[in-house]
Write a structure and sequence with these properties.
Blueprint: E1 2-10, E2 16-25, E3 30-34, H1 41-48, E4 56-61, E5 64-65, H2 68-71, E6 74-77, H3 89-99, H4 104-117, H5 133-145, E7 151-155, H6 163-178, E8 183-186, H7 190-196, E9 199-204, E10 207-213, H8 214-221, E11 223-230, E12 243-247, E13 250-255, H9 260-270, E14 272-280, H10 283-291
Parallel strand pairs: 3-8, 3-9, 6-7, 7-8
Antiparallel strand pairs: 1-2, 1-4, 4-5, 9-10, 11-13, 11-14, 12-13
Helix pairs in contact: 3-4, 3-5
Length: 292
């Protein structure tokens, strides 16, 4: 298990990037680390990888502080991609595998498997600079995976990917998690995080403002009543709690309070009710509430 406890980091000039950040990523768990730009996600990941030193706090792996030897067994995908632009795709993945201690034969076998899984086989002899951004992302992921890491830490791995590439990458990460590997990744794509992750941590201005399983966070947020009325009369929702949005000829009311039967009566009287039901809060809604 990866344990992050009480991380604090202050940069020159007085900016506090992290203020007591802590969370856990368990074996076989996909953990989504979300927050606005500048919230502290990348700083946290760099401290875990030893790229930055924290002013306080600790990072532990399997109950022991992380050291250089342990970090060699981590698969890391940084925010700033670190590929050799002139090197061929397959050659590059094999090279990084050998840097992690793999034999040439083992690195080659693992590379061939990853090229197939990430649909890069036809580009194996292309220079990285000739690839699209999405394909460069796939190569970077292959570099992080080639040595069969015990832990995966990925900073915005889905950035710039098309839907097909997102699905391919998601499948690979889910397979690694099913094999017992803890997977920590950051992303701004909250719908994707909600779909993929077992647990989520929300960071805002260097502090953790929410953490837990998706189900736990949704339960804490409660349910909201959503009402969709087509052809509604203007003003039908006046005085009702919640937010009303007009989408063409549809009025959409979302509320977590009030008399649901009274709301239904007014909706039926006003127009054609297309939807009336309680829904769990989305991760996007939870995020907005947590960072407000």
């Amino acid at each position: 298990m990866l344990e992050i406890t009480g991380l604090r980091k202050q940069f020159p000039g007085g900016k506090v990037a992290l203020d007591g950040v802590g969370f856990e990523v368990r074996p076989g768990e996909l953990y989504g680390f979300v927050g606005a730009n500048g919230a502290g996600k990348t700083t946290t990941m760099r401290i875990v990888m030893g790229v930055l030193l924290s002013d306080a706090g600790q990072v532990s792996w399997q109950g022991r502080p992380l050291d250089a030897d342990t970090r060699k067994r981590i698969g890391y995908m940084p925010e700033e991609r670190g590929l050799y632009q002139k090197m061929r795709v397959a050659e590059q993945i094999e090279y990084f595998g050998q840097l992690h201690g793999m034999s040439a034969a083992a690195a080659r076998t693992a590379t061939n498997d990853l090229l197939e899984r990430l649909t890069l086989t036809e580009r194996r002899n292309d220079a990285v600079e000739a690839l699209s951004l999405g394909n460069q992302q796939r190569v970077q992921l292959a570099v992080a995976l080639v040595h069969d890491p015990e832990l995966l830490i990925l900073d915005e791995p889905f950035s710039g990917l098309d839907p097909i590439a997102v699905e391919a990458l998601s499948t690979v990460l889910q397979e690694r998690a099913r094999g017992g590997v803890p997977v920590l990744f950051s992303s701004h794509q909250l719908e994707l995080v909600e779909r993929l992750c077992d647990a989520v941590g929300i960071i805002s201005a260097g502090r953790m403002v929410a953490t837990g399983s998706v189900e736990t966070l949704q339960a804490a947020a409660g349910r909201a009543l959503k009402v969709v009325v087509r052809g509604a009369e203007p003003g039908w929702a006046d005085g009702l709690p919640g937010e009303l949005a007009v989408q063409g000829d549809r009025h959409v009311l979302v509320t977590s309070g009030g008399d649901d039967q009274e709301i239904l009566r007014r909706a039926v009287k006003s127009g054609h009710v297309e939807h009336f039901g309680f829904e769990r809060a989305s991760l996007t809604e939870i995020f907005k509430e947590a960072v407000a």
